[in-house]
Design brief:
It is a single chain. This protein is mainly alpha-helical. The protein folds into two domains: 208 residues, Rossmann fold, CATH 3.40.50.620; 88 residues, Tyrosyl-Transfer RNA Synthetase (Orthogonal Bundle). Helices cover 55% and strands 7% of the residues. It is built from 13 helices and five strands. The chain has a three-stranded parallel beta sheet. The protein has a two-stranded parallel ribbon with strand order 4-5. Helix 4 packs across helix 7. The longest helix is centred in the C-terminal third of the chain and has 30 residues. It is globular, with a radius of gyration of 20 Å. The model has no long low-confidence stretch (mean pLDDT 96). The structure holds tryptophanyl-5'AMP. Tryptophanyl-5'AMP binds next to strand 1, helix 1 and helix 7.
Length: 326
């Protein structure tokens, strides 16, 4: 059976970009594959956090993952920090990746340009991400477009490790969604929708109420041309609205453009489609959020299942490198 792995950071609440770009793909894969999904809380520590912040965000994120339809009977959902295997393999991979390769990563350049404090962890982040993936003998990694560079580096690291130390890791493939791989900020359509945007006016949070969603779409930045066309270079704002509507309704954005002459009705329809999609998920989230202890119990069961796979791969990697048996 195909093995799938993906991860998401517990940094604030999740948004429409996370859902359309990655999480929505995770749901059918639970039935079609042997799927492992991690809340990558160690990755969230690369940027300084207040005490308790990561723990709260981890619980809320797990509640969202169950609310959108991950079924702990059908897949393995766990928190990365529950398993020491991730850190242990990360070290072996840090010693496999080069300084130059890490320095070329767009996410590092982007975040370190903006950060007051640039941690060593922010720099070595891609080695930990590679460890997450390689520990599970992963065939496929469903993610949004912004993860493509880290996944290419993961493949490079796996191939280099295999050639230095003998066959150890499966070299994984990246799986992007057909639509929604890059959802842009509604206020700054040249930047991706993100949890770390300066204002939340351009970000649709999964928990946003209908009136807020309608307002954010109404105020979405477009252009002064007043013609509806899908053209991501010259019309990023309008194309983003078409892309979102297309991803939600599973239609082609270029075809949808033919239905509109003005921006107003397109904004209303995009907002309505998102509201209708989110309503049942929000209702399930509210039920699940009432019992945080249950959620932590499910994560603990997931971590035990994950360990049975991760421990075997780590042992193989240690032995192939030539470390003392434990
Ligand atoms: P993170 O937590 O930033 O995002 C989680 C997932 O959401 C996708 N995504 C988007 N997709 C479309 N449009 C957007 N605007 C958008 N914003 C986010 C991301 O592509 C991602 O799939 N480094 C990873 C976490 C990670 C990971 C892993 C992922 C750690 N280890 C192993 C896969 C496998 C990250 O920061 O994702």
């Amino acid at each position: 059976m195909t093995r799938v792995f993906s991860g998401i950071q517990p940094t604030g609440d999740i948004h429409l970009g996370n859902y359309l770009g990655a999480l929505r793909q995770w749901i059918p894969l639970q039935q079609e594959a042997d799927a492992f999904y991690a809340i990558v809380d160690l990755h969230a520590l690369t940027v300084p956090k207040a005490p308790g912040e990561v723990l709260d965000a981890t619980t809320r994120l797990a509640q969202w993952l169950f609310a959108i339809g991950l079924d702990p009977q059908a897949c393995t959902v766990f928190a990365q920090s529950a398993l020491s295997e991730h850190n242990e393999l990360a070290w072996l991979l840090e010693c496999t990746v080069s300084f130059g390769e890490l320095r070329r990563m767009g996410q590092f350049k982007d975040k370190s340009d903006r950060a007051e404090f640039i941690s060593g962890g922010l720099f070595t982040y891609p080695a930990l991400q590679a460890a997450d993936i390689l520990l599970y003998d992963t065939d496929q990694v469903p993610v949004g477009e912004d993860q493509r560079q880290h996944l290419e580096l993961t493949r490079t690291i796996a191939e280099r490790f295999n050639s230095r130390h003998g066959e150890t890791f499966v070299v994984p493939e990246t799986v992007l969604p057909i639509a929604g791989a890059r959802v842009m900020d509604l206020q700054h359509p040249d930047s991706k929708m993100s949890k770390s945007a300066d204002t939340d006016a351009g970000t649709i949070m999964m928990s946003d109420q209908p009136a807020i969603i309608a307002k954010k779409f109404k105020r979405a930045v477009t252009d002064s041309e007043n013609s509806v066309r899908f053209d991501q270079i010259n019309k990023p704002g309008v194309s983003n609205l078409l892309g979102i509507l297309g991803a939600v309704t599973e239609r082609d954005p270029e075809t949808i453009a033919d239905d509109y002459e003005q921006y107003g009705p397109l904004k209303v329809d995009a907002a309505d489609a998102v509201i209708a999609m989110l309503e049942p998920l929000q209702a399930r989230y509210n039920d699940i959020a009432a019992d945080p202890a249950e959620c932590r119990r499910l994560l603990a069961i997931g971590a035990e299942k994950a360990r049975t796979v991760a421990a075997v791969t780590l042992e193989r990697a240690r032995s192939n490198v030539g470390l003392l048996p434990r």
